[in-house]
C-alpha cells in the first residue's frame, strides 16, 4: 500500500499503523453511533508532520479525521469514509504558561486534567470542564463547555489563538495573544466548533483564570423541576455571580445515590458553586438561601470544605457513569439541547414525558444556568427497537428546543448524530456554512460528512 | 438616474436621497480619513427593504455601505467606491426585552444610550460602552468594546443572534436564543467585526446583565506607567473581579483637568470600578488598596456615591473631547492597538517616546485590563507634514504591538486605516479571510475595499 509507505516516510515508521487493534481503537467514540475502521492511524509530533499527512491525503484522495481521546458523543470522530485518523496523543505538551497574561499555550493532545495539574503550580486554573477528561484540541473542536460555563464561558470564549493545518496542508494562526481584537475576521470563532471539518488544530493558546480565593458548594432539593429552574432565574436576576448551577432530576439522583453511595433526597436537585472573596461569598450564600426558599426549596446544604465539595461534584460528574453502572450490558445514548432559560422548565418536563413514554430507563441532568440539558438513555445497541425509541425521544426534545429559539446541541457538537437537524435549525444560514466549508476545503479532505 | 428611481420604488420616495447635504453627512466618519460622497443615501424601515436595496446594488453593479451614526474611527463607513449608503436611523426600535433570558432584541439603529434607558426599567443594563453613543449595529460591525470589557467582554461576546442581509439580498439568522451552541459553524462570531463587508445587520439579539447591587469607583495616582500596569496585573492575579480599569497618562490628565474642571494630580492615573455585593466589594476595595500601595501608588480616592462616580467617568470618557477642545482648529487622529498585558507598560512607554519625537500634541489612554490603548494625536488635516508625523507614530505603535503578539486594533476595527497591517498581522490567515469574503460576496457588493 503506497499511502502507508509514504506516511511512514513522512513520519517515523512506528508512528504509522494499520494494526487491527489500533484501527479498532480509532473506529469509534463514546457514543452509540456505529464504528467504522480507518485505513491508517498516524501519531504526529509536529504541525509539519500533520501538514505532510494532510498533503498525502490530498495526493491519495483519501481524508483526514483528527482524534483526541475519542470521548465525543455524536460520532464526531468516527471515520466513515476512507480516512487517515490523526491521533494527537504524542502532541501532549504544555508549551508555555504566561502567568501575567493569563494565557497558556498547549499542544492539542494535552488533557484537561493534565493542564489543570500544571496550572495549579501558578495559582491558575482552566475553566472548561466537560466531565470527560478530554483533550484541549478535542474540546476546541466541539466547542465544549460544561458546568462552569455560566460564569467563565464556553470553550470558544477561552481560545485566543489556534495553530491550524488547513485542507491544503498550509499552516495558519487564527488569533494573537491580545485579549481582544477587531482586526480582520474572527477565525478563532469559526474554527472552534468546526469539529475537524475546516482544519486540524496543532497548537492552542487559551485563557486561564486565577484560582478563586474562596469556593463554596451547595445542594438544594426541590419539589418540582419548575421550582428549581425558577430559583436559578431569580439567582441570576439578583446578580449573584454563581460559578456552577446544575440540575439533576429525581431519577438521576437515585442513580447517583446508588453509584456514589450518597443519600441525597431523590427529588429534583440543584448543585451550586460560588466563587469569590470570603465576605462576598457569605453575602451571596445568604441571599441565595433566601431566594431558593422563596421558590419552595425543601432544604439546602452547604459544603464549605474541599472534601465535601469534591464529594458533591464527584457525584454530579459521575451521573452518566452511574446510569451505565446501573444498567449492565446496555449502552448510553446521551443527547444534548439548549433552550432559552425561560423555556427550560417546560423543556425538562416535556423531556421527562418523552422518556416515560419510550419505556427506556433514563434521566435528565443539565447546566441549568445556560438552559442546556442532557438526557441519558440506556439502550441495547443491538436491539433496533431500543435505538428507534431513543431516536424518538431525541427527535422530540430537539424539536421542542428548535421551536422555542433553542439549539439542537449546546455542547456535544453535531458529528453525525445532529446533522439531520441542521437544516431546520439554521435555515438559509446553512448555505452560508456550506459556502465556508467549500471555500476552505473544496475537495472535502477534512472529517467528511460531519457537521454540515 | 434609473437606480434612484428604482430605489424610490422599493422604499418610499422620501426615504431615498441624493441631496448634497445628506450625501455629505454620509461621506465621512469621526476619523481623519478623507471623505467621499456616495451616489445615494437610503433610509430603510425593514430587512425586506434592505434586501431590495442590496438587490438593486447588484443590478446596477454599485455597492452598499451600512451606516449607523458615523462614529467609526478608521474610515469604516466612508463610501470610497460608487455606493448606496444604507442609513439605519429609522430602524431604531427596541423590539423585545426577554427579562428571564437576559436578552434584548433590537433594530440596528438603536443607540447605546437609548437601549440603556429602556433596560433600566427592568433592572438590566447593556455592558458594552465604547465612549461614543454609537448604534448597536455599528458596534457589532466593528466589534466594539470599551471600558467594561475586562469584566463583561466585548461586543462579540454579547451577540446571540443577528438577522443579516447577505450580498445577494437573502436574509439569514446567524444564531439562536440559546446561551450557547455547538451546532454548525459560529456565524455570530464571523459577522461581528466584519464591518459591513459580509452583510448588513437588520436585527440583533444581545445579552444583557442585571444592574449590580453595588458599584464603587476609584482613582489611583502613580509615579510611572509601569507601576500602574503592574498594579493592574496584580489586581487581576488576585482574582479581584474588577469591572473597569482605565489608564490615562499625565498629559491626558492635564487635558481632562482643563476640560472637566477637575484637579486630578497630573501623573499616570488608573480609573477603577468594582461591581458586586456590599460585603464583597468592601473586601475587594481593601485588597485593591493594599495591592496598589505595594506598587508605589501615590494615593487612591474612592467614590462611593453615584454623583462622584459619574463625575469620575465623565472626565475619563471626555478625554478625547478634552484634547479636541484644547487644540482648536485641529483634528484628532485616534489610533488603537492591543498587546498582551505583560507588554503594556513597555508599549505605552515606547508610544510616549514616539509621540514626543513626532512633536505633535498627544496623549495615551487605555483599557489597561485588556492591554488595549489609544493614542490621541492632534493634527492639522490640511498639513501633509502633520499627517505624515501621525502616520509615523501609528506605524511605530502597530509595529511594536505586532512584534509582541498583539493586534493592530483592539476595538476600532480595520476600516481603511488599518488595512495595510493585515498582511503583517495575519500572515497566511489573511488568505483564509479573503476566501470567506469571496465565498459570501463574490462580486464585492458589500462595503468594498474595507478590512481585507
Task: Write up what this structure looks like.
The structure is a homodimer of 452-residue chains. In chain A, a hairpin with a 5-residue loop joins strand 8 (159-165) and strand 9. The first copy, chain A, is globular and about 70 Å long. Chain A is of the alpha+beta class and 452 residues long. Chain A is 37% helix and 22% strand. The first copy, chain A, folds into 4 domains: 2-87, Uridine Diphospho-n-acetylenolpyruvylglucosamine Reductase, domain 2; 94-210, Uridine Diphospho-n-acetylenolpyruvylglucosamine Reductase, domain 3; 214-319, Alpha-Beta Plaits; 329-429, 2-Layer Sandwich (Alpha-Beta Plaits). At the A-B interface, strand 9, helix 8, strand 11, helix 9 and helix 11 of A face strand 9, helix 8, strand 11, helix 9 and helix 11 of B.
Radius of gyration of chain A: 22 Å
Most extensive interface, chain pair and sizes: A-B, 103 and 103 residues
Please tell me the CATH architecture of the largest domain in chain A by its name: 2-Layer Sandwich
Poorly predicted regions of chain A are none
CATH topology of the largest domain in chain A: Uridine Diphospho-n-acetylenolpyruvylglucosamine Reductase, domain 3
Q: Which percent range describes the beta-strand content of chain A?
A: 15-25%
Quaternary structure classification: homodimer
Net shape of chain A: globular
What number is the mean pLDDT of chain A?
A: 95
Count of spatially separate domains of chain A: 4
Reading off the top of the CATH hierarchy, the class of the largest domain in chain A is best stated as Alpha Beta
Amino acid at each position: 500500500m503506497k499511502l502507508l509507505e509514504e506516511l511512514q516516510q513522512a513520519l517515523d515508521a512506528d508512528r504509522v499503523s494499520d494494526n487491527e487493534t489500533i484501527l479498532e481503537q480509532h473506529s469509534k467514540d463514546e457514543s452509540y453511533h456505529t464504528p467504522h475502521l480507518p485505513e491508517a492511524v498516524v501519531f504526529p509530533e509536529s504541525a509539519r508532520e500533520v501538514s505532510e499527512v494532510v498533503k498525502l491525503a490530498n495526493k491519495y484522495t483519501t481524508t483526514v479525521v483528527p482524534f483526541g481521546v475519542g470521548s465525543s458523543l455524536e460520532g464526531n470522530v468516527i471515520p466513515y469514509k476512507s480516512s487517515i485518523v490523526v491521533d494527537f496523543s504524542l502532541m501532549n505538551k504544555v508549551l508555555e504558561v504566561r502567568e501575567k497574561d493569563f494565557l497558556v499555550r498547549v499542544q492539542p493532545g494535552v488533557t484537561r486534567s493534565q493542564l489543570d495539574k500544571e496550572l495549579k503550580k501558578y495559582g491558575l486554573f482552566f475553566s472548561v470542564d466537560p466531565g470527560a477528561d478530554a483533550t484541549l484540541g478535542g474540546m476546541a473542536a466541539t466547542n465544549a463547555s460544561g458546568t462552569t460555563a455560566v460564569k467563565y464561558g464556553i470553550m470558544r470564549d477561552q481560545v485566543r489563538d489556534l495553530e491550524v493545518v488547513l485542507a491544503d496542508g498550509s499552516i495558519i494562526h487564527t488569533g494573537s495573544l491580545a485579549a481582544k481584537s477587531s482586526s480582520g475576521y474572527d477565525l478563532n470563532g469559526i474554527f472552534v466548533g468546526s469539529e475537524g471539518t475546516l482544519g486540524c488544530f496543532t497548537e492552542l493558546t487559551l485563557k486561564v483564570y486565577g484560582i478563586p480565593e474562596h469556593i463554596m458548594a451547595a445542594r438544594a432539593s426541590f419539589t418540582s423541576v419548575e421550582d428549581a429552574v425558577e430559583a436559578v432565574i431569580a439567582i441570576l436576576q439578583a446578580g449573584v455571580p454563581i460559578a456552577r448551577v446544575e440540575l439533576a432530576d429525581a431519577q438521576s439522583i437515585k442513580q447517583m445515590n446508588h453509584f456514589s453511595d450518597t443519600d441525597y433526597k431523590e427529588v429534583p436537585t440543584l448543585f451550586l458553586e460560588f466563587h469569590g472573596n470570603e465576605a462576598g461569598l457569605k453575602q451571596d450564600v445568604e441571599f441565595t438561601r433566601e431566594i431558593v426558599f422563596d421558590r419552595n426549596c425543601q432544604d439546602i446544604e452547604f459544603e464549605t470544605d474541599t472534601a465535601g465539595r469534591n464529594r458533591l461534584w464527584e457525584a454530579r460528574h459521575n451521573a452518566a457513569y452511574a446510569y451505565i453502572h446501573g444498567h449492565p450490558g446496555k449502552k448510553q445514548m446521551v443527547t444534548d439541547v439548549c433552550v432559552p432559560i425561560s423555556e427550560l422548565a417546560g423543556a425538562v418536563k416535556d423531556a421527562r414525558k418523552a422518556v416515560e413514554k419510550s419505556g427506556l430507563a433514563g434521566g435528565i441532568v443539565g447546566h441549568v444556568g445556560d438552559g442546556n440539558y442532557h438526557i441519558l438513555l440506556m439502550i441495547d445497541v443491538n436491539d433496533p427497537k431500543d435505538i428507534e425509541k431513543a431516536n424518538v425521544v431525541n427527535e422530540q426534545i430537539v424539536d421542542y428546543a428548535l421551536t422555542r429559539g433553542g439549539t439542537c446541541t449546546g455542547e456535544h457538537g453535531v458529528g453525525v448524530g445532529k446533522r439531520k437537524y441542521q437544516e431546520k435549525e439554521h435555515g438559509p444560514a446553512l448555505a452560508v456554512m456550506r459556502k465556508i466549508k467549500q471555500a476552505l476545503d473544496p475537495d472535502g479532505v477534512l472529517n467528511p460528512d460531519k457537521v454540515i
